[in-house]
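Retro notes
What went well: the complex prediction finally ran end to end.
Inputs used:
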Amino acid sequence: MSGNTFGKLFTVTTFGESHGAALGCIIDGCPPGLELSEADMQRDLDRRKPGTSRHTTQRREADEVRILSGVFEGKTTGTPIGLLIENTDQRSKDYSKIASQFRPAHADYTYMHKYGVRDYRGGGRSSARETAMRVAAGAVARKFLEQRLGIRIRGYLSQLGPIRAEKLDWDQVHQNPFFCPDADKVPEMEAYMDALRKEGDSIGARINVVAENVPPGLGEPIFDRLDADLAHALMSINAVKGVEIGAGFDSVEQKGTEHRDEMTPEGFLSNNAGGVLGGISSGQPIVASMALKPTSSLRLPGRSIDVDGNPVEVITTGRHDPCVGIRATPIAEAMMAIVLMDHYLRHRGQNGDVDVSTPVLGQL
Amino acid sequence: MSGNTFGKLFTVTTFGESHGAALGCIIDGCPPGLELSEADMQRDLDRRKPGTSRHTTQRREADEVRILSGVFEGKTTGTPIGLLIENTDQRSKDYSKIASQFRPAHADYTYMHKYGVRDYRGGGRSSARETAMRVAAGAVARKFLEQRLGIRIRGYLSQLGPIRAEKLDWDQVHQNPFFCPDADKVPEMEAYMDALRKEGDSIGARINVVAENVPPGLGEPIFDRLDADLAHALMSINAVKGVEIGAGFDSVEQKGTEHRDEMTPEGFLSNNAGGVLGGISSGQPIVASMALKPTSSLRLPGRSIDVDGNPVEVITTGRHDPCVGIRATPIAEAMMAIVLMDHYLRHRGQNGDVDVSTPVLGQL
Amino acid sequence: MSGNTFGKLFTVTTFGESHGAALGCIIDGCPPGLELSEADMQRDLDRRKPGTSRHTTQRREADEVRILSGVFEGKTTGTPIGLLIENTDQRSKDYSKIASQFRPAHADYTYMHKYGVRDYRGGGRSSARETAMRVAAGAVARKFLEQRLGIRIRGYLSQLGPIRAEKLDWDQVHQNPFFCPDADKVPEMEAYMDALRKEGDSIGARINVVAENVPPGLGEPIFDRLDADLAHALMSINAVKGVEIGAGFDSVEQKGTEHRDEMTPEGFLSNNAGGVLGGISSGQPIVASMALKPTSSLRLPGRSIDVDGNPVEVITTGRHDPCVGIRATPIAEAMMAIVLMDHYLRHRGQNGDVDVSTPVLGQL
Amino acid sequence: MSGNTFGKLFTVTTFGESHGAALGCIIDGCPPGLELSEADMQRDLDRRKPGTSRHTTQRREADEVRILSGVFEGKTTGTPIGLLIENTDQRSKDYSKIASQFRPAHADYTYMHKYGVRDYRGGGRSSARETAMRVAAGAVARKFLEQRLGIRIRGYLSQLGPIRAEKLDWDQVHQNPFFCPDADKVPEMEAYMDALRKEGDSIGARINVVAENVPPGLGEPIFDRLDADLAHALMSINAVKGVEIGAGFDSVEQKGTEHRDEMTPEGFLSNNAGGVLGGISSGQPIVASMALKPTSSLRLPGRSIDVDGNPVEVITTGRHDPCVGIRATPIAEAMMAIVLMDHYLRHRGQNGDVDVSTPVLGQL
């Protein structure tokens, strides 16, 4: 398989470039009988959409998704679901400069080395615009998981550059443009982003994502552990440079007595595991965290080379997110949903269905 | 595919339990014509082997690998390579207690929920003993990559609990039982481990792994980015809870002007990217880091439940690594090698061969 | 993977139903740098298109394909190629009867059992309309194979019901609506089809497909032999009930001395093998043949049951091909092209490129 | 994936050469809780074993299989099942001649072109000896299918060269060395084979395989239709040149009214479909047939070339089956079992379990 497909049983294959005609995706393996309409996807697409605040790119895309197949009389049929989003705001501009230069820290240089050609309009296939289709596909998985298993998947921005959220108030997450669960930090973030925009610089971020009520038993050791597939899924999102499950890198300094999550008949007493033991879900909340680097599309000049190997100074103009992490929460949720969906189907294939009548003991 | 296979073109499928008859593996897709003997794998297997110092488990396994197929007259034939390691030190003991209890923070509980049965002898399939076959398979990949492309893959322990290596002296890595590149820290690590063993506790660790001279162009966007596959590979190693590429979680607080690796005609000026841009290798060294949790096999009692849901106090006896990170360096190297090998073949399939005559510009 | 993807490195994933909004497909893994436009695909799509003679269904579909991604400045970029064909002639009709009955020998009954729901409009996903996307994808593979390796893929109808082509004159194949290579048999076929249409019955057919100038070495034993993948590909076409390679079922009565294709320094002396030895191409022409059953959409009544299990008499009205084999030649060619393309890339991945400068010795 | 793995959820990966140390296989994805011992596999292995009559090769292999993992206390655990058969009768002989010649109609020529090297001892990987592991793996699938779904899979030789079985008496199949269901034809076959052996020639055969009580709903359109996967599976068996499902090539001359299997509330009235409609099982018996070519290992001289391209006359000595079809029945059954098992798990993954309490209506 050639890299544009994710999942083994619930498979998502995407196509499309930043400034091409359209983005599209095929979801294969969706169980039949799920009520599904464009509105189910639009909700999440709108959360990811650019241009909803002054802190994201001003590109205007409606990101309206169309279902082209796989749904009949309002329900999935078990056959592949074709999705399409037309690109509407591909601004015509002069790409001649960008075509001959490698922007520092962009995929320009590596795509050119890999393929010998590249679509330089807006980053082509390497643009994060591609993640719109992940969000659409994730919405399908999310709906199924919620209806069938009662799984709830939610994410939030836990850190924007130097500013950390110190409270986790889920109700706040959608009350600000940052997906920040700590209302007290929002003004600070607003000010930080305004200053940054003036400077012309960009900043990194950290996103956490949590899945609750996941039944124990999902995950396929040895290589397709649930956490390994999650790491794969999250690291495949543009700009992600690190992934943690549960205690993550804090585990390095933990002693065994401290890290191990003890159990009682009522459930686990802590969740350093992040909900995964031996690669299999334990019933505890699945907790993952990811680091996003600052975008490299800056109007502050940077040293680079052109396609002939000559030194150049590159300035990136155009419409860019100064913090790609701001719009990444729905994408992280979508990838979590796709991974869980895929593993639920894989588990059911080998082992039969999970017993949804038993309450999940694992909850922290 | 059911989870015990890694790779798309260079595929590694393993079997075997901690106390079963044998461990085995099939490598499929290895290019023909590679000189290969058991000795090529034994070198790495010996580096991972238990019982080589007082700081690791005292289980005695020769870990002697046999090649059963795929090699003829000293060279690979392109057909599948069957490998076998017989288990020789499965100590017979009374497993009745462990059979009915879930050790806290072990896979006992999750395997039971997933499969309804479990091989409780020494952790069965969930034991890190399985990683021996990864090391054997990785040695094949490593040899090919070195001979064909001049790639060098090396790892080291960068942190053992609270003790961080502060120098990176590659020559030191194999001069101590910890794979520590900083000779000055070794006495401290020795003392720390001795104290820990007396306590009966365990500790986490961090391992770094670096691949040098990787040609630009390896990696398959969107989902099978080189870094995503690396994250998958490393997170699939027992006890790993976090993975970073390049600057990793430090990216969260970096500004774009700080993070972006500028280029000159002579190469990159920094390597925050960790050698991967847009999911494709850039020619810079590939740099990954992983966090390993402390083992949960402790003789200090912990609260848990038995298979009937009753509360129990669990004490784990037997032979265990107080720091699984100590033996993890060769495993991380092996997974890096398998990922690069797989991506080299995938790249060659779609795009034709890389030009090995051109020096890699990417070096930092 | 969930059944709607074909190929390992050159992968084709399709979606779409007979009377849905559109058909689509994603080609992933296409080598970069191939000149490609809609016209390259349209040529083959037009050959498969319905309504070009009175002997096929009178449904009017322009089958105009749009490239939505993966092509930039006229060349493939190595990223996924998204293709779309809008359905334009979904005639609105009363489906209430068909919705509650299982047409004999149709997929109605099995889709209902598999998925619990089905899109009954025109057969939904089970309709041969889906093959349009195979033809489009096959055209991409065909173009690459021709330009890069000089491979030529051609098919023809060798038998229509009781009437066998007795001459193989390639120039005749496109001179008649049947893809028949024997001009003498065309009037007989015309008459036969006219009579059949009056009767309201249908008839089977046999299609042969030949690939010339295929380099030796393509095919992956053991399970993904070239002939096994070809059998898979051809049997996956609607209505196909049998596949032969080379001598096929005639091999049953052949002696070894008769079947074996002897060689001289100039090449093979016969081609009972059909170009495949041990699952790997030999350089001889690849020769495959397939049997297509008569369509079961008849206006002559047939006994069946309804969704409640009651006996019913079913009459199928609407626009149908009385011999689905007539339009199957371009589909068989497309699947042959996709299989060869996939195996060429897989071969190149593991073994490096084939040497195209050496003439293929294998030719018969 | 590199060709030595079959199946998506129930995956079988094999290794081993004719004269190597051992044959092996890993079954991944087997449901847990299945009682399994070596004896379950040995029964089928013994049916395939060489040397049980004078009509097969006189190579003596006990073909004793060992289970190395995946079974604990007599039951499968859901983890990979490692199987091993040591080769015991690799007769040492002078291979110098065979090493430099390409035997006509063998894989010698194609393996050499593909890989540049080949293991020429007994055909290496291309030998049908590899099929032993398929039979072992098939036995696991067969046992599960029988216990869980009541599926029965049986095969027979329907034609040996010019001699056709005219009766199908299942009780006779194991009463003669040919798996012939027509006792009256056995003496003729005996005489035919004796004469053939004297001549030094070989002959083709046809094998039929039938699966009864298969629930409706198995098979994944579009590309992974049940019949397409069966064609793949059967064509991947050494020497197979043709595959039919149901009426097969007879469909070419059938009219729609003749071919279509009408239904009544009691079931189908005929089975031209061979149990598959639209790529999905209908509940009717699955009926497949395959053609095996005559072996090309003949002591009658044949024209060929050597590795330098010079003309040579080749005589194949050694121990060979004059009719490979004779031992092929258990192999065909095994592949049928593996395909059905894989599709059952795939179906259960996407759609939930089949209802085994309802009797299968589909029976003919």
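What we learned: The helical segments of chain D are 38-48, 96-100, 108-115, 131-149, 186-199, 226-235, 256-259, 329-351.
What to try next: split runs per interface for comparison.
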